[in-house]
């Protein structure tokens, strides 16, 4: 009996010891992964730092010798605002409660989010000159962090990742556009740069937006109804798939494709990426965001006209850092060249991207209609893409003088008899046709809406005259209006003319 009492006592003591250890572990102060050794904090502004601890627990934060104390709320959440600092470092950060966390080698500089689909995710290792780029990536004051691709309807607090100094050992798998953009900023501004890469190949714009914003707007009702149907049929679809998988296994065949989880956990379901990859970073101090996406929405340009500005504005609203700069890449040329003018879903998506410039302030578009590859949706020249994004940031955000930021773009038209006179803005230094002196890429149509190739000639520093003997009474002009247009008009600085049309005639896009 005494042995049983002693055994029970030992078990009881063991239970309390385990409970106590578990309670202590739960009470320990923790931070999400966006805060780690080697991180970069945004210069010249207060930066939010947040974490978890035991409910009501006192938490002391010391950054660069400045201490402040706060208490965790009833749910264990706490946050502080770190004082603004100029660019520099390294600094030390300590967070202390029942335990202590210490981060060394923290820099203060410029922080940018790098988002989008595969062309933003595309790594340095598979871009132009990867051997040279990797060998020379010796930039300890550029810091990199990648958020894994997680698709979920549940907002995530943290992720599996950590900041790393840029080096030949760390850069190869990082976003090429992000790295080359950050490198240009670093070399021009001479300050530390932090880059947060959360791009996900193949992702649709709606996956980056909070679900309630889409569900509360009737404009997106067809889209949301389709997804509610997919979600409602999940259990049935899963059972069918499992039955087919069992049959395949019994027959010695591989499991079938099309697992229903591909939809549920994938990169098209509304809010999936917002919750899984964006939410854990929202609130971290940034200067702005760069974005390369649109291929997955190319058949829905009318919808993208509204959805893309909604996404940008929703990010700004939730980040709480005002109208931070947001610069994107217009879709490149892709697919086969067509011998005659026609409609184009990709041209309409490019137009939707361009329209966003007039919808929201502090936005910019890098035009790359000359950088794509007809046979490959992933052009390898990411350096050129990044430089055009960097031009926008250096001029519009950092006010660097002597740099041309934008491609020429259409401003107005005037019909004079059988000719159309087009006026453009941002024609830095005048025009420079590429390869040949003739201007290629213009088409013209009359009231019948039948476009033909046009003759175009420069008549002034920012004007072009367009005509065709086949169109005596012109009504519209288009330029580079194709999936993969043949076009060659640039400014003297080497920036391509932005694709455009002067009409608003119905095209091929749908909105659901």
Rg over CA atoms, rounded to whole Å, is: 27 Å
Q: What is the count of helical runs? A: 12
Per the CATH scheme, the topology name of the largest domain is Rossmann fold
CATH class of the largest domain: Alpha Beta
Number of strands: 23
- Unreliable segments (pLDDT under 50, ≥5 consecutive)? 1-25
Helix and strand content put the structural class at alpha/beta
- The outline comes out as globular
Q: Give the helix proportion (percent range).
A: 25-40%
| Mean pLDDT over the full residue set | 94
CATH superfamily of the largest domain: SGNH hydrolase
Sheet with the most strands?
A: 11 strands, mixed
Distance between the amino and carboxyl termini: 75 Å
Q: What count of structural domains?
A: 3
In terms of quaternary structure, the protein is: single chain
Strand proportion, as a percent range, falls in: 15-25%
Which architecture of the largest domain does the CATH hierarchy give at level 2? 3-Layer(aba) Sandwich
What is the compact description of this entry?
The protein contains twelve helices and 23 strands. The chain has 512 residues and is α/β, with parallel strands linked by helices. The strands form five sheets. Strands 1, 3, 4, 6, 7, 8, 9, 10, 11, 12 and 13 form an eleven-stranded mixed beta sheet that branches. The protein has a four-stranded antiparallel beta sheet with strand order 14-15-20-19, with no helix packed on it.
């Amino acid at each position: 009996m005494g042995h049983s009492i002693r055994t029970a006592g030992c078990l009881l003591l063991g239970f309390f010891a385990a409970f106590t250890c578990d309670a202590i572990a739960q009470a320990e102060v923790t931070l999400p992964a966006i805060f780690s050794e080697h991180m970069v904090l945004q210069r010249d502004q207060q930066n939010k730092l947040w974490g978890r601890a035991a409910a009501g627990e006192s938490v002391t934060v010391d950054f660069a010798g400045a201490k402040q104390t706060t208490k965790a709320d009833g749910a264990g959440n706490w946050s502080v605002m770190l004082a603004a600092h100029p660019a520099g470092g390294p600094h030390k950060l300590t967070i202390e409660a029942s335990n202590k966390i210490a981060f060394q080698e923290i820099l203060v500089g410029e922080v940018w989010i790098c988002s989008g689909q595969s062309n933003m995710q595309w790594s340095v290792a598979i871009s132009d000159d990867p051997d040279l780029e990797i060998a020379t990536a010796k930039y300890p004051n550029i810091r990199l962090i990648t958020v894994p691709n997680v698709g979920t309807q549940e907002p995530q607090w943290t992720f599996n990742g950590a900041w790393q100094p840029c080096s030949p050992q760390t850069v190869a798998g990082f976003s090429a556009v992000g790295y080359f953009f950050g490198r240009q900023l670093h070399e021009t501004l001479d300050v530390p740069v932090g880059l947060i890469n959360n791009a996900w190949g193949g992702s649709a714009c709606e996956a980056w937006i909070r679900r309630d914003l889409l569900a509360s707007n009737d404009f997106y009702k067809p889209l949301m109804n389709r997804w509610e149907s997919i979600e409602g049929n999940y259990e049935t679809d899963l059972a069918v798939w499992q039955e087919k998988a069992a049959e395949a296994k019994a027959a010695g065949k591989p499991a079938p494709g099309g697992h229903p989880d591909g939809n549920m956990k994938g990169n098209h379901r509304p809010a999936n990426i917002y919750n899984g990859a964006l939410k854990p970073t929202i609130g971290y101090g940034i200067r702005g965001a760069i974005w390369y996406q649109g291929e997955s929405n190319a058949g829905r340009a009318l919808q993208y006209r509204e959805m893309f500005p909604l996404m940008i504005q929703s990010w700004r609203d939730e980040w709480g850092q005002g109208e931070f700069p947001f610069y994107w890449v217009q879709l490149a040329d892709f697919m086969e060249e067509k011998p005659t003018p026609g409609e184009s879903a990709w041209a309409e998506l490019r137009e939707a991207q361009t329209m966003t410039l007039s919808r929201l302030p502090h936005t910019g578009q890098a035009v790359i209609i000359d950088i794509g590859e007809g046979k490959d949706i992933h052009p390898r020249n990411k350096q050129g893409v990044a430089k055009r994004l960097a031009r926008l940031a250096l001029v519009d955000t950092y006010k660097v003088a002597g740099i041309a930021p934008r491609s020429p773009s259409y401003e107005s038209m005037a019909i004079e008899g059988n000719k159309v006179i087009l006026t453009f803005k941002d024609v830095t230094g005048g025009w420079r046709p590429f390869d040949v002196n003739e201007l290629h890429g213009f088409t013209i149509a009359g009231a019948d809406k039948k476009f033909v190739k046009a003759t175009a000639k420069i008549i002034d520093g920012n004007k072009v005259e367009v005509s065709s003997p086949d169109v005596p009474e012109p009504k519209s002009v288009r330029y580079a209006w194709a999936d993969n247009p043949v076009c060659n008009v640039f400014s003297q600085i080497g920036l391509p003319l932005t694709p455009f049309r002067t009409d608003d005639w119905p095209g091929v896009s749908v909105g659901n």
